[in-house]
């Protein structure tokens, strides 16, 4: 049973006050409320920065000890995780105010963690990401901080990999995608095996991802047993590309499944025996044969 989230009396009172003021009726209204609050918060942060820059708060002329002063605002729209937010950036007469909460030329204030995970997924190292954030956004984030951010995705990925599956699949395709990955300080190429299943209602989904190592019948039995333990009792057709030991593993775990070689790989294999000058005519005839 999920544990109920505890709220302090102060936070509960704040939430009740917000709900009473905004009166949201659905998730879209809540999103609009959050966008409004975020905009007000950023605005107050900018005002506080201007107070600190000038050394006195607005209208507090008694404590003014500078020949600089406020000079209105510049309208600006920034993109956030809650949507686009219009703000007014304070200006000073000397023009040397440099806000830090929303920097000049910065138009995206969405979650830094989302950007970190996106860069990490594209293969950037933690040090590359740290340097990129400093260069583009002026954000100081150490490689260790980046590692802590990326580590947060691991439980989510593990939960997805272990999620329950359908009882039956009409077809399951298994193929490999090769990636260059960092391992022990050097770049190596590794195969990631992807299983895509088509349910009886026609819906397709990725069943899981497995990083290749020493593939053998024992390895594939482990993969198929994982799929079975997640709820899949039967697979009608399994399409593979002659992976070593896979046919034996299928016979052991899903003995009723029919094994077919992937058509794309069959075509690639067949064309090896056709001369280059005949390949176009051969492919046209082959397409007719396959589609008939």
From TrEMBL:
Keywords: DNA recombination, DNA-binding, Transposable element, Transposition. NCBIfam families: transpos_IS256 (NF033543). Residues 71-82 have a biased composition (Polar residues). PROSITE patterns: TRANSPOSASE_MUTATOR (PS01007). GO terms for molecular function: DNA binding; transposase activity. Belongs to the transposase mutator family. Coiled coil: none annotated. One of its GO terms (biological process) is DNA transposition. This is Mutator family transposase. It holds the Pfam family Transposase_mut. Residues 63-99 are annotated as: Disordered. Required for the transposition of the insertion element.
